[in-house]
């Protein structure tokens, strides 16, 4: 059985390799628009599955781009991957897309790597970065197309600056890197959207939870996760209270 440090190094290597493959594909000019995104999803997924089959033979994998298998529910170790998080951003030539490689152990996001190929950066649980200073004013990353109502309301209350951004991985890593201070999302995501980012954020010392304060749990039969909060630990109590107040006022 491999230890988690070796798993983390493996996750980093695979995420970086998939990111380089995606850059090469886009720069080849063979595809554009939606066809580029579709090709990127398929090619990166195939490469990741091959690498995991070679390095961790027999271990379960949950991937956005592969058919799910209920056998994984009986496994302690499950790799949860998003070969291309932010397909639209990738196909539009933006930099806010990512590759996610995570390992959930007994439902917990134990290992994660998030590659940001356009930026030449990979953040992973093997060497989590030190948290930088907070921003003034506080910055909150939100979806480019569907910012969470709770995030908008809390930003208005606190004077936080909203920062629209693409993929979930890019938003989470913006908090880890200090480009933002809060990532609050309630529009729903799948396990592969958040498992690797949550693992990295937690390893870096950030607060991670559902917006009701409950823990993020993975390798579930229902792979849909309604919401998440990533922020500094000292800010979490007030943010969670604000979310509760918003929910009560909306009823």
Automatic annotation (TrEMBL):
Catalytic reaction(s) noted: adenosine 3',5'-bisphosphate + H2O = AMP + phosphate
Keywords: Magnesium, Metal-binding
InterPro entries: CysQ/Inositol_MonoPase, Inositol_monoP_metal-BS, Inositol_monophosphatase-like
Pfam families xrefs: Inositol_P
GO molecular function: 3'(2'),5'-bisphosphate nucleotidase activity; metal ion binding
GO aspect biological process, one term: sulfate assimilation
Cofactor field: Mg(2+)
Superkingdom, taxonomy of origin: Bacteria
PROSITE patterns: IMP_1
Binding site for Mg(2+): 64, 82, 84-85, 193
Keyword Magnesium: yes
Name of the protein described by the UniProt record: 3'(2'),5-bisphosphonucleoside 3'(2')-phosphohydrolase
Annotated source species: Stakelama pacifica
Organism phylogeny: Bacteria, Pseudomonadati, Pseudomonadota, Alphaproteobacteria, Sphingomonadales
């Amino acid at each position: 059985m491999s230890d988690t440090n070796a798993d983390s190094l493996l996750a980093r290597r695979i995420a970086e390799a998939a990111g380089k493959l995606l850059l090469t594909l886009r720069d080849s000019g063979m595809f554009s628009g939606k066809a580029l995104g579709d090709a990127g999803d398929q090619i990166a997924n195939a490469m990741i599955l091959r690498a995991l089959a070679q390095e961790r033979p027999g271990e379960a994998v949950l991937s956005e781009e592969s058919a799910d298998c209920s056998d994984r529910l009986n496994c302690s170790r499950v790799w949860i991957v998003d070969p291309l998080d932010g397909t639209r951003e990738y196909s539009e030539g933006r930099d806010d897309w990512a590759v996610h490689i995570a390992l959930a152990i007994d439902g917990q996001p134990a290992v994660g790597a998030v590659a940001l190929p356009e930026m030449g950066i990979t953040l992973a649980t093997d060497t989590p970065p030190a948290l930088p200073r907070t921003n003034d004013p506080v910055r909150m990353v939100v979806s480019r197309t569907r910012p969470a109502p709770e995030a908008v309301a809390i930003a208005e209350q606190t004077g936080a600056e909203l920062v629209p951004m693409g993929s979930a991985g890019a938003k989470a890593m913006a908090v880890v890197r200090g480009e933002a201070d809060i990532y609050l999302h309630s529009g729903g995501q799948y396990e592969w959207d958040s498992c690797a980012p949550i693992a990295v954020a937690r390893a870096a010392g950030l607060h991670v939870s559902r917006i009701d304060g409950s823990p993020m749990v993975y390798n579930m039969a229902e792979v849909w996760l309604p919401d998440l909060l990533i922020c500094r630990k000292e800010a979490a109590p007030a943010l969670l209270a604000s979310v509760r107040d918003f929910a009560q006022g909306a009823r």
